[in-house]
Automatic annotation (TrEMBL):
This is 3-oxoacyl-(Acyl-carrier-protein) reductase FabG1. It comes from Phocaeicola vulgatus. Keywords: Oxidoreductase. Belongs to the short-chain dehydrogenases/reductases (SDR) family. PANTHER family: DIHYDROANTICAPSIN 7-DEHYDROGENASE (PTHR43477). It is an enzyme of class 1 (oxidoreductase). Gene3D superfamilies: NAD(P)-binding Rossmann-like Domain (3.40.50.720). One of its GO terms (molecular function) is 3-oxoacyl-[acyl-carrier-protein] reductase (NADPH) activity. The keyword Oxidoreductase applies.
């Protein structure tokens, strides 16, 4: 049962063509939103926009490309005029010990997970309404000691810090900024990391699963519910906060 929480609201989901971003985009649409999703792959974007249905548009944008971000701002302004909700879900994961990380690896992860996020917010800021909500995709990796993933963990810790700083900057503008930080979630990206057909890799991921107190993966839909809460007026007195959707891994394990 829907409540039409976003009826008449303009919602932009950056990275809305797969995984958690797609689940959130579907939920926003079901709640009545005027929706724009972005992603890097044009064919995937078009098919996912059709799958979402409703009032959904799709624009290609690679958040590591500053010119594409600028172009997206122009397109969003032409279609929407202003934004009620900005959810930035675009991100990448990569593992590797400190000795295996190249400058190219570092730049790719930081550009996608942090720099692209920052400059997307900067570009969209003049379009943000009052009141409005910005929700950023974090990760429990930004809180935990994550072996073999120092760059990813650092990028997600940066997201947490960015959200708090921007929340303080924007509080008088009527713009709330919050973070959703998932634990291991059953997304296409996770299944790729799990290594279908790779027995050793699957054993390692089974060991990882055992560290989650609820003893299962989260679903994109469960994370999307937290996103919609922070995006909606249900959380109108919440800013600078972080919601963990991690099966208890951070606080109970």
């Amino acid at each position: 049962m829907t409540r039409n929480l976003f009826e008449g609201k303009n919602v932009l989901v950056v990275g809305g063509n797969s995984g958690i971003g797609l689940a959130a985009a579907k939920a926003f649409s079901q709640e009545g939103a005027n929706l724009i999703i972005t992603g890097r792959n044009v064919e995937t974007l078009t098919s996912k926009a059709d799958e979402i249905g409703g009032r959904t548009s799709a624009y290609q944008c690679d958040v590591t490309d500053m010119e594409q971000i600028k172009d997206l701002v122009v397109k969003v302004e032409l279609e929407f005029g202003y934004i009620d909700v900005l959810f930035i879900s675009a991100g990448q994961y990569s593992s590797g010990s400190i000795n295996s990380v190249t400058e190219e690896n570092w730049d790719w992860l930081m550009d996608t997970n942090l720099k692209g996020m920052f400059f997307t917010i900067q570009g969209m800021l003049p379009l943000m309404g009052n009141p409005s909500s910005i929700v950023l995709m974090g990760s429990i990796a930004g809180r935990l000691a994550v072996a073999e993933s120092p760059v990813y963990a650092a990028s997600k810790a940066g997201v947490r810090s960015l959200a708090r700083s921007l929340a303080a900057d924007f509080v008088t503008k009527g713009i709330r900024v919050n973070v959703v930080s998932p634990g291991p979630t059953d997304t296409p990206a996770y299944r790729k990391l799990k290594g279908e057909g790779n027995t050793l890799q699957q054993v390692e991921w089974e060991k990882k699963l055992s560290t989650i107190p609820m003893n299962r993966l989260g679903t994109p839909e469960e994370v999307a519910k937290a996103v919609l809460f922070l995006a909606s007026s249900d959380s109108s007195f919440t800013t600078g906060a972080e919601i963990l959707v991690d099966g208890g891994e951070v606080y109970l394990s």
